[in-house]
Design a protein that fits this description.
With 543 residues, the protein is α+β, with helices and mostly antiparallel strands. It has three domains: 17-46, no CATH class; 59-397, Alpha-Beta Complex (Phosphoribosyl-aminoimidazole Synthetase, Chain A, domain 2); 418-443 and 464-541, AhpD-like (Up-down Bundle). The protein has helices spanning 6-19, 33-38, 72-79, 125-142, 163-180, 230-238, 244-255, 259-267, 280-292, 309-314, 320-329, 341-347, 362-375, 410-425, 430-440, 457-472, 480-493, 497-509, 514-528, 530-541; strands at 90-92, 101-104, 110-118, 146-156, 183-191, 196-205, 221-224, 272-275, 294-299, 333-336, 356-360, 381-389, 394-397. Strands 8-11-7-12-9-13-10 form a seven-stranded mixed sheet. A six-stranded mixed sheet has the order 1-2-3-6-4-5, covered by helices on one side. Strand 2 (101-104) and strand 3 form a beta hairpin. The protein is globular.
Length: 543
């Protein structure tokens, strides 16, 4: 039970009501919706307890991971007229659009500084903290630097989620920074309705060996250290269309440090590097090509992909960040041969904690990729080369070795990706529908005709009704989560107590939060009024 100091609550509420505004959120009245829905007063220091079952962080945000960042085109418009630092010690600053800034201290040492913050790309708080750390460190690694210290940055809805979630996010970040040998020396937090996490990182680099994104040279080979698809798979997971194998593979990729890859690229005399994150492979490669005044060729069939990404693209499971990235960097695409649009879309997918895109001399490329695969990046691959001087155009070619699979019907895709059990949980089975119908939706009512014969018209009609219920509850144009919330709202509006209890229990098992369940119920209450509210509150108390 949450600890409640009723005297403090009464004192705080009196102040709020005298002012006509909640004292911890001036936009809300008192009593606020949290008090009405959860019997908790945030202004009095009351906090929700941890709820049983997994918490889905990605369900609490609009865009997952680096897809939550401002798009490249908008940033260019906003930044183009802002003044650049007039200091000769700034070797790489804001106008360069590079991964990190570089500030020279002396002949041997320069600082590398970066900051990176985004929303969760996975549901597990601890894993999200790890990814946030690995992603922030990657900017320093991409410059050829060695990260030394970090400051944590976090946005968290302290009145909506248990403190344990925040603690796990921070612990994940600290553990990943410790793995990298980086000291977290402080941080900053803000009360934010959407969870966000990241770090500001400071490192050092030899001023003569900085790997900027403008260093491409004609004949260079392009190597990528991690597979693409984290943005697509994060979105697929948000809508219940990603397999456990795909999400686990994406999480492993995102938590992997680019530390050893950075060391190896310096060992093999790389000319340029960038890490592939929110702007997608095309966006980051286009920036490199334009800054280097070169044209490049990209080998679609050799670009490493996470499992399940091709099928997601074929099924049109593509997040909005793909479109934003196409608007920002699509003009760099000079030509593509034999590629379907959905295949090209993967190249614009916003990556979270993606790999390093390394430009290396052709003479050392094979040896570098072999070392990467052996030591730290098993899917590292050569994905293209620098054609020669140019204006930043990207030619994408395919030799037909990799094709998109055929798209699947929605129901088939949902079943194969979530598994039979998850599909079953998205709607009532035949037996569940029969039980719900008999308990509250018309079964065994007084005066009904009761028959047992298989040929009975009533029995046949009832069977068809059960089949209809099963079909209507399966995910199709609406995903399973949305249908579950709709079912809760309709159950509350019709004041069907067994229905409410059944759907709420299943919603909790499927990872929906109590806040989501309550919000669906309150949509029904807004239509049904006070009697519906009283029914819902009494039903929830009895569970």
């Amino acid at each position: 039970m949450a600890v409640k100091d009723l005297d403090k609550r009464r004192r705080v509420m009196q102040r709020s009501q005298q002012l006509g505004h909640c004292i911890c959120d001036a936009k809300k009245p008192c009593p606020c919706d949290v008090l009405l829905k959860q019997d908790l007063c945030p202004c009095a220091g009351e906090r929700p307890e941890a709820t049983p079952g997994p918490l889905r962080l990605t369900a609490l945000v609009e865009s997952a991971g680096c897809a939550s960042k401002i798009d490249q085109a908008t940033l260019r418009r906003v930044l183009r007229d802002l003044p650049a630092p007039d200091d000769p010690r700034v070797l790489i600053g804001m106008p360069a659009g590079d991964d990190a800034g570089v500030f020279q201290l002396d002949e041997q040492t320069a600082l590398v500084q970066t900051v990176d913050v985004f929303t969760p790309s996975v549901d597990d708080p601890y894993v999200f903290g790890q990814i946030a750390a690995a992603n922030a460190l990657s900017d320093v690694y991409a410059m050829g630097g060695q990260p030394l210290t970090a400051l944590s940055i976090i946005g968290f809805p302290v009145r909506a989620l248990p403190d344990e979630v925040l603690e796990q996010i921070l612990r994940g970040g600290l553990d990943k920074m410790a793995e990298a040998g980086v000291a977290v020396i402080g941080g900053h937090s803000i009360n934010d309705p959407q969870v966000k996490g990241g770090f500001a990182v400071t490192g050092v680099v030899d001023p003569q060996r900085v790997l900027a994104n403008c260093g491409l040279q004609p004949g260079d080979v392009l190597a990528l250290t991690k597979p693409l698809g984290t943005g697509i798979l994060s979105f697929a997971a948000q809508i219940g269309r990603a397999s456990p194998e795909s999400t686990e593979a994406a999480a492993r990729s995102m938590t992997a440090l680019n530390k050893r890859a950075s060391e190896l690229m310096r060992q093999f005399d790389a000319h340029a590097c960038t890490d592939v994150t929110g702007f997608g492979l095309m966006g980051h490669l286009a920036a490199m090509a334009e800054a280097s005044r070169c044209d490049v060729e990209l080998y679609w069939d050799d670009v490493p992909l996470l499992p399940g990404v091709l099928q997601c693209a074929a099924d049109n499971i593509l997040p909005g960040a793909v479109e934003r990235n196409k608007e920002s960097s699509g003009a760099a695409l000079a030509a593509s041969e034999g590629l379907e649009p959905a295949a090209l879309d993967i190249l614009f997918d916003a990556q979270t904690s993606g790999g390093l895109l390394i430009a290396v001399p052709a003479s050392t490329a094979t040896e570098l990729v072999a070392a990467l695969r052996t030591e730290c990046a098993p899917q590292a691959a050569v994905i293209g080369h620098v054609i020669g001087e140019g204006t930043g155009r990207i030619f994408v070619r395919s030799d037909g070795r990799r094709e998109l699979p055929p798209p699947r019907p929605v129901e088939t895709a949902a079943k194969s990706e979530r598994g039979d059990a998850a599909l079953h949980s998205s709607g009532p089975s035949f037996d569940e529908a029969r039980q719900m119908s008999q308990s509250c939706c018309g079964g065994d009512r007084e005066g009904e005709t009761r028959v047992t014969g298989a040929a009975s018209v009533v029995g046949d009609t009832q069977q068809k009704f059960f089949d209809f219920l099963k079909s209507a509850n399966q995910p199709a144009a609406l995903d399973a989560r949305t249908k579950r919330l709709i079912a809760i709202a309709l159950s509350v509006l019709s004041r069907c107590e067994p229905c409410v209890k059944s759907h709420v229990q299943k919603a909790l098992k499927e990872g929906l939060s109590p806040a989501e369940i309550d919000e669906a119920a309150w949509m029904a209450i807004s239509f049904g009024g006070t009697p519906t509210m009283m029914f819902y509150q009494e039903t929830r108390k009895s569970q």
